[in-house]
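Q: Convert this sequence to structure tokens.
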Amino acid sequence: MKSMRLFSGVLAVGAIALAGTFFSPAAAMADDPAKQPDTHKHNDGADHKGHDHGDKDKKKDTKKMGDAKGAKIGEAAPEFTLTDVDGKTHKLSDYKGKIVVLEWFNPECPAILQHHEKAKTFNDMYNDFKGKDVVMIAVNSSAAGKQGAGKELNQKMAKQFGMEYPVALDEDGTVGHAYGATNTPHCFVIDKDGKLAYKGAIDNGKFGKNGDKNYVKQAVEQLLKGETVTTPETAAYGCSVKYADKGQSTKPKK
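A:
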């Protein structure tokens, strides 16, 4: 009788242990993908430190389309006065009667390298419109100490990229915020009357892959023909603009 009770007890303990094996928290976590730890790793060998992912930025920008902040299509583009890395001053109103293309720029952003180094998207566009009353200006709103900031770095990279149009610095972010620039590159096309005709991505591509339709070039070509821009707004993709943190000094370091 004793031996039977002992045998029953062993069976009960075994059943409990077996249940623990199948229904432990670790096993439940393994069955539920939402509870598993993030094991995502890059396998392209690239250093992604300090960079944003295009898809993440694109989702943010999609939400911001139609936002009340920033420049609006069909309205007067915000006036600005900026100095480029060569010391020349650029005032928007001085270009009235010409089409102005603004490209938000950060020479260390992979999406900028995508269109300036791996491909010559902006340089090719500049050459296509040379002598046609079209002005192109790259605007860098990276704050002092942030990625891509600094006169010397931008001078060096503009030369390396073969850029014939100016790179203007907006270290306090005033112009970037006025236009609602969120990414590099984020593009804005201003018509000859000073009104915003297009804002958004350079093309229909994505972070890491150029598209086959250049929205900026299309907008400029339509404006030159006196036509209405058929795609006035798209979601920009690329790195986030490296604006100053709250309370951060925007004075460049000496």
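Helices lie at 2-23, 25-31, 54-64, 110-116, 121-129, 151-161, 174-179, 215-224.
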